[in-house]
Amino acid sequence: MPQKLSNFNAVLATTFRPRVPHSFFSVSCTIQCSTCRVRYPAASPYLSSQNPSPQARPSRPPTRAFSTFPPLLKNKRDGEKGNKRSPNDAATNPATELDPFDFSELEAGIQRALERLKDELSKLRAGGRFNPDIVEALRVSLTKGSKETVRLGDLAQVVPRGGRTVVVLVGEKDHVKPISSAILASPHSLNPTPSPHSPLELTISIPPPTQESRLQALTSASKAGETASHAVRQARGAQQKKLRAMSLTKKVGPDDLKKAGTKMEKVVEGGNAEVKKVVEGARRVLEQG
After folding, report:
1. pLDDT in the model for residue 226
2. What sections of 75-146 are H helices per DSSP?
3. Residue 39: beta bridge partners?
4. Burial of 279 (0-12, 13-18, 19+ CB in 10 A)
5. pLDDT tens digits for range 97-133
6. Cross-strand partners of 156
7. Where are the beta strands (DSSP E) in 173-252?
8. Measured in whole angstroms, how far is the alpha carbon of residue 170 from the centre of its chain?
9. Which residues contact 172 (CB under 8 A, 6 or more apart)?
10. How do strand 24-27 and strand 30-33 relate by DSSP bridges?
11. pTM for the model
12. Please, what is the angle between helix 211-249 and helix 104-122, to 10°?
């Protein structure tokens, strides 16, 4: 009987050689192929040499390979474009864009116009109260024939010395002549003379105002007032443009826009009245000087 079983196993090994890989599992005293469903004796030499039993080679579940990809990062340029803010972001901020009663920009524009006006008028009061800033603001050419100029206040110090006398203290000896030439060429009719006590000192006698100088100062004061009034109108135009944009977007009611327009006109009227007041005060001083 053992000899017959051995011959039978040899026939199976040569006759039923699998053409594809087979997997086997144990069924009672035999081993059955899960592909072709053929049963083989457990002692088959084919199984022992070609395909070990499941006990000798345990089966493993199929594994799945996972692919990995590099993380997608945001482009630097795209980030810069997204984070880049427009210069008009402050003007288009919803907090202020939808507030028709925000007159901060209008009031700031009027205040700047008044400050420039007062500064211009202070330089015209050369009658009884001479302003040293007039001399300090003169331009000095240190090199003959050169177009480059330097502010006189950067080269010398202008000090009032009571009455109608002003002293110019020059820092360097080489600057005395250019400074003296710049003062003589100014439209203020000033004549500097060297001081006998120091070669770096120039004395300026302020001449009394004449009828011609008064008229010129009054004309300059009127022009300064017109410039300030124009600046106030420009500030009003910017505010009016803001209200018009709110009206087009229809994000603010017409009643609020009408009230805001009325209040805007009152702010502008107050600014014009202040400009007129400053100019008239300066004109009175110039006429009396």
Report:
1. 95
2. 76-83, 94-97, 104-122, 133-136
3. 32
4. buried
5. 678 889 999 999 999 999 999 988 877 754 445 677 7
6. 170
7. 192-194, 201-205
8. 42
9. 155, 200
10. antiparallel
11. 0.53
12. 170
Distance CA(42)–CA(124), nearest Å, equals 125
How open is the CA angle 212-215-221, to the nearest 5 degrees? 140
Q: Which range has the worst mean pLDDT, 127-141, 171-185, 197-211?
A: 127-141
C-alpha 66/C-alpha 123 separation (Å) is 84
pLDDT, averaged across the chain: 75
How is residue 194 written in tokens? 């060297």
Angle at 264 between CA 113 and CA 94, to 5 degrees: 100
Q: Is the dihedral of CA 7, 10, 14, 15 positive or negative?
A: positive
* Best CA proximity match to 283, nearest among 231, 219, 240: 219
CB atoms within 10 A of CB 173: 9
Work out the burial of residue 59: count CB atoms within 10 Å of its CB; fewer than 13 is exposed, 13-18 middle, 19 or more buried: exposed
Q: Which one-letter amino acid corresponds to residue 103?
A: F
- How sure is the predictor about 76, in pLDDT bands with cuts at 50, 70 and 90? low
Print burial letters for 109-148: b (CB count within 10 Å at least 16), e (below 16).
bbeebbeebeebbeebbbbeebbbebbbebebebeeeeee
- The owner of tokens 């203290």 is 169
